[in-house]
Each structure stands twice: as C-alpha cells, then as structure tokens.
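I wish you would study the pair of lines that follows with an eye to the fold:

===
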Amino acid sequence: MDKDSNDKSEMMQFLEDTAPAKPGEPSHTPRSVWRILITDDEKDVHTATTFALRNTRILGRPIEFLHANSARETVEILKNNNDIAVIMLDVVMETPNAGLDLVAVIREELKVTDSRIILRTGQPNQAPEIEVIRDYDINDYKLKSELTQSKLYAALTTAVRSYKQIRMIEAGKQGLDMIVRSSSDLLTKNGLNAFAQGVIVHLSGLLSVPPEGLICVRRSDRRRESEPHIIAAAGHYCLLIDHPLSDLEEIHARNLLEASLDSRTNVYDKYGLALYLGSDARGDMSCYVSSGNQLDDIDQSLLEMFCTNISICADNLTLLEQLRDYAYTDGLVGLPNRNALTEEINTFITEGNREGYVLAVADIDNFAEINASLGQKYGDLLLQSIAKRLRNKFPKPCFVARVAGDTFAIFGPDTHLKAENVLVPFASPFDISGEEQMISVTAGYVPIIDVDGGATEAIKDASIVLKLAKSGSRGEVVRFDSEMIETAKGRLEVLKGLRTAFDMERLELHYQPKLHLESGKVLGVEALLRWPVEDGEFVPPGTFIPLAEQSGLIVRLGEWILRTAMMELQNLQYQGWKDIHMSVNMSVAQLQHPAMMQTLKRVLAETSVDPSLIDLEVTESVAMEDLTNNTLLADIKALGFQISLDDFGTGFSSLNYLQQMPIDRLKIDQSFVKEVKDSSGNEIVELIVHLGHKLNKKVIAEGVETAVQAEYLKSLNCEEVQGFYFARPMSSTKLYAWLKERT
C-alpha cells in the first residue's frame, strides 16, 4: 500500500493535479503528492503546521499544503480542486461554530465525500457533538495544543490512508461500471474491425489516456503461423489499419504486441501495456496502449476483468456474424439467399433507386426429374455450377441469389440485366463430373418501378410471373404485366378465401340424383362441393376447384368430401334408401398422393359403409396414367369400391387400354350430351353407348337438360342419366324431401 499511485482522471485511481512534464517524460505523468487543505483564521497555525510537516512523506508521497483563512475561501478552493486528501478545519473562525457549519456545506452542498476532515480547536469547550462527527463523516477531532509533530503526523497518516482506500473503492466501482457499459456498447458493433475500434475508444476512457497510442492487432491463423495484422488504430496509427504488424516502425510497441500474442496474456512494462483479447474461436488478438503510468493491483485487476468481458463480447460477436452468414447465405452454392436478396432490394428502394432496376427469377425446368434420375449429389453439383456461371455472367453491380431449391434470382440495373440476357448463361452445357448436361430454364422479369411495394412484393410478383411462364411459356423469359399480376392476385384471394371457408366449416356438399332412364328409379346421388357466400349465392365450382387442385388443398378437401358423403350415405340407409349409391369425384392430386390408400381404408373403417355402394369417379387421363405407371385403380377396386370413368370422350384412351381398365361404367361428358340435337353430337354419344355395351360396362350420361336429350338416350338404351331435366344438385335436407316425394 506504500507505493505511489498515478492519476487516472475519473476512472482508474486518484484525481491528482499534473505537473509540467520534464523533457522526454510523457505529458500525462501525474504529480504524486497528497494535497492537504489548512482552514484556520490564525496565521500562526498555518505556519506552525507546515513547518512541523516540512519534508514529510506519507505513504511514500510528499505533502502539498493549500491554505484558507475563512469558510468562504475554503469553499472556493474545494470548488476548484477535486483532489484534496485531508481538510484540517478550525472549529472557531468568524463565528463560534463556523467550522462545524462549514462541514455541512462541504458534505451536503459541495458533495465532497471522499476528502477526510480533521477538526481542530484551541478551545476545549468547543468540542463538536457526537451526532456531528457521525453525520458528517469527520475523520478526527484534535485540540491544537495536542498536535505535536508526531501526533500531527499520525493523524494525517490515518486520514490519508482512509482517503486512499475510499478513492480506490470508488475508482473500482467506476471502472466496473465502465466495463459493463463498454460490453453493452461493443455488442452492437457490426463486424470485428468496428468492434476493435470500439475497444480502443473504451480502453482509452478506462485508462484515462488519449487514444493516440492505441493499436489493435489480430492473428486469425489457429496454428499461429501467419503474421498479425492491424485491424484497428487511433491517431497517426490509423494509416496502418489492414497492414501487417511488421509495418509498425515502433519496435517497443511491436515487441510488446508480439509478446502478448505469443503468450496469450497481458504484458506490462514502464512504457506501455499489451492486453490479450483473443480466443480459440477468433484467433489471437491484442491491443497496445502507450502509457507511462505505473499500474497498481486494482488497475491490473480491472484490466483483467475488462479483457475477459471484451473477449466474451468478441466471441458473441463472432457467433452473431456466423449466424448472420447462416441467415443470409445459401450453404450449398455459397450465394446470398432470399433474406439477403430482400435486404438488398429494400436498401435500393429506400434510397429511391427504383428507376432502372429489375429483378429476374429463373427456375430450372424438370429439375426434380434430373435429381431423381441422376441422384441428389449430381443435382447439387449442377446447382453449384449454375451459381458459379451466374456470378461470372452477372458480376457487380448485379446481385445474384438462390431463393429456392432450383430457383435463382438476379437483381441489378437494366443496363447490365436485360431480359434477353437472362437465359444466356444456360445456352451452353454444364460439365458435371465429366458429363455434359444441358438444361432448360424459364424466367420471370420484373422492373422494380412497376412493383407496388417493397422487396417482398417484388419477389412475389416475379414468382407469379415465373409460375405463369412455367404453365404456358417454358424455356422463355416472360416480362411483368400488371394485368397478369392482378389476375394472379385475384386467384390467390379466391384460394385464401377457400382455405378460410374450409377451416371455418362453411363449405357444403350438395347431391344430384342419378336415375335409371327406363324406370325412373333413383339409383344414387353424386356428391358435389359447394361454397356459399354471404349474399346467398355460390362461388362457381369452376372458379375454385382448379385452384384447390393446383395448390394441393384438394387432398384435404377430398378426404373431407369422401368422409362427409359416406356419412350421408349412412343417413340415407338409416332413412330407408338402402340401395342408393354415392358417387364421389377423385382428383389427380388425390390419386397421386402417397397416402391415398390409407385414406380410403381409414374412412371405410370410420363409417362402416359397404364400399360397393361408393362410386369413385376418375378422369380418363388419370386412368390411362395409372395403367402405364402403377396398379392404384386395381388396388382401389380390390377394396370393393366401384370406379367410373368420368368425362369419357374428352381424353385419348386406346381401345386396348380401355379393355384393361378396372372400371364399372363410362360417364358420357355433358359437352357431348348437349349436342345430341345435331348429327355430329348424336354420332359420338351413340358411339360411346355402343362401346360401353360392347365392353360390358354400364353407361351414364350427365348434363341431361331436355326431354329431347332424354328420349334420344333412351332410344340408345343408355341405362343411367343425370342432369337438370331430372333434378338439380340440392342440399341434404332438400334431397330427403325430394326422395320422399318420388316415393
């Protein structure tokens, strides 16, 4: 505790006045003295005290005296000096209690709490009350007659030691506070270089030195073979940022930094210090501070804590950077991902750069087939090759990103990114593992100026254009058209409304009867999906059914329709109509779903309906595909279901395949029934009826709307009919009433 302490301004040690620097001595070297204020209205007291303590050192430092003859002078001195260790205060001056009154001013008004106070009086009867000593933190009370040289030295030594301890505690508290605030601030830095620059700023504040002599270096090589580089600096050292440490001409600073990096510890000497801030995750990092200050134990403890906190912050920053890489970079091809593209476009839009910028989104045609036939590894290599070629074809200022599995995006000025150039990178084959691979690509092209909104809307519009191009213009670039987008958005709104209606159980099944044409007997009903809206009208099935099929919603809808229809069949049987059949349409998406058979078995188990009373209607194209690819229809037939070939005549079935299909009936499409009034329509319907009979299949005609059509079908011996002429689709309640009326 005897060694001299050095000035750290507000943070690190004692606030002490600074003497003029000696030649060659750092300008911030402190003046190491204890400042003692003598307040007394007797001149002899001042003289006697200074004489008694001349050439005296307390705790290793000399004493410097300040003098005040009154309370007013004392206040002025304290206002202008914040490093007074001890105040030797006379109790009786202008008034009998002037000294005691001044104590209250010092502690309460001036807020001087660390300076120690020794009360002195020449009159024994002027002793202060115990409460005054306690409340105003008075260090000692002495009679002037008692203060011999030895007693005066002892009293001052006790007071100075107390002052030093108080200042050390306060410096420690303030240092810890700065460390906490520094850690919080540094975590907001973007990038390790900015972080290192922030460390320099906070470290100079902690040590109360100008940032002129601070340098931060890093060696990222874990094997510690690479040369350290300067990543941050202050003052005239700024010119060395991004330079190797060997470019630093000051040998002492370079040696200190290298010693810190090699030993991975803090290194101190009388000219400066190097603080180690590295870790295994980031590599070695050290910060050099040029300082002539000698650091005591508390200083070094605070610096150790600072280094620990800063290292933790830097590791967290490194983790955040890695997470950012994961969040904004595609791991497979190394390109920016959708998040990065969104941020890039929004940045340009925010800066008002819509004019002249475009977004192209390109998708590989039939990539799933390439992956399936040649393997995922081959597909990954193909994607990586495409990414490399796009980067080379569209360098900065263009921005290339991978936004989905086989979908890439290019954003940039239209001077560099023209619609006719988007497909150029794909014109020549790709070399994948020594094999040439040609691919076809379809793209959407959207000027940002035409986008109503930000990056999200731009990517959405480009994706819509791409999807439309995929359905009608494969292998081409389709430019944005506002009418096209509005149509697509309208379809999306319909789909959104359909999902909501389904989730809120607002959809209904209506049932259209099927009759035996000759006898008029009701053979069954067909379950038809209906979507009622608030005004009592219905959304046309032709509007929402295709959207449900394209979106995949039809799979969930289809299961609900099947289950609801089979439960309705249970009710019909319970009401006495035991021979009625129920027809349910099956979409392509349902039949292609891998869980199709499990769904049928599950619904059968839940309803306990005889499957022979369920007629599943499939389109001609689906039946043809099933025959060439798998045996799904045969498996469905094995469960006991009946199968009808719906919309017959609109597909391209060969007679050979038609004989092999496991179906029970042919359903003549209503478009042919509608034309029975002319010769061409009559011939097709007649051909289908005769073909069905020849193949031992039942034949049903749908869309029968007139008596003429019904009579003509009867003349052809068409067994079953369905249409408005006999009955419209109706709710279950109306169906029961209709059936009772016919009975």
